[in-house]
Amino acid sequence: MVGVQYRPHQFKENKVIEESQSPWASPIVLVKKKKQEGKEQEHRFCIDFRKLNEASINDSYPRIDYTVDALGGSYVFSTVDCAGGFFQVPLAKGDREKTAFIANHKLYQFMVMPFGLYNAPSTFQRLMDTLLRNLTLELILSKFSLAGLKLKPCKCCFGMSQVNYLGYVISGDGLKPDAAKTNVIANMCVPKSREEVKRFLGMLSYYRRFIPNFSTTAACLFELTKDKVLVKPPILIYPNFKNGFSIYTDASGLGIGAVLTQVVGGKIHSLAYASRKLNARERNVWAAKNFQSYIYGRHIKFYTDHKPLSTLVKSKEPNGRLYKLLLN
Question: SUPFAM superfamilies recorded for this chain (predicted)?
Answer without folding.
Answer: DNA/RNA polymerases
